[in-house]
Amino acid sequence: MRLARYELEGQVKIGAVEGESIAQLSSRIGHLGNDMIQLIERWPELRDHAERLRGKVDCRVSDVTFLAPVERPGKLWGIGLNYKDHIEESGGAIPEDQTWFAMANTTVTGPFGDIELPRVSTELDYEAELVFVVGARVRYATAAQARDAIFGYCVGNDVSVRDWQFRTGQFSIGKAFDTHAPYGPWIVTADEIDPLALPIRSFVNGELRQQSSTRHLLFGPVQQVEHLSKVMTLEPGDVFFTGTPGGVGAAMKPPKYLEVGDQVRVEIDGIGHIENTVTKG
């Protein structure tokens, strides 16, 4: 199932997307409102109800503005150096362990919202990424528990400010700028997708920049949940970016950074696409 947060006529709702149609869930499922985290937490009890509503037509995809599926995740993190070709273009060695960084909640923006070119940098870059959303509270997860803890998947762009990212050994500051984590356009529930068999691409102004498959991930989503749950309790609605393949602007010769007016599109087969315009920050 594809579960989306969207705005229609000034109201934010949650719906199930089927083709070009949306079945509105917010008022049909008791006390749900527009809280995606509540839907995720209550999914075991609400899933059958949502499935029965699937296919109803309350509005069309073209009528709405899609929003980030979880507006303010409790945790928002990203992993670096998780595709071999990106590691090679970055000039690094293949890591033996997972390389994680925290991202600020204010980086979240909608799947078709604007991303800002900061006033303090000209080195704005894109990173096409598979995103997963946690669906169950888990700590010290086994592989089976980790698999069951993943609620679903989205398309994301881990927008990066390269000069800030590499000023120190800590990546987080360059990954923390406002609007720099667009994702969506909806959550595809984990039962409908194989996260390790998804072609992934990015385009800048229609030019293909990245093209790979999630089968090339060094550490897949299940391994990521296993690893992270050794450190922290993962909770429903937590959002994690899983790494980018080769083809980022910083690795080009000369580098090709994003400029005001650029259109950045990220596609993942089986999920959908997001597209964002660079604006002046």
UniProtKB/TrEMBL annotation:
GO terms for molecular function: isomerase activity; metal ion binding. GO terms for biological process: carboxylic acid metabolic process. Residues 75-278 form the Fumarylacetoacetase-like C-terminal domain. Keywords: Isomerase, Metal-binding. The keyword Protein biosynthesis does not apply. Belongs to the FAH family. This is 5-carboxymethyl-2-hydroxymuconate isomerase. It comes from Novosphingobium guangzhouense.
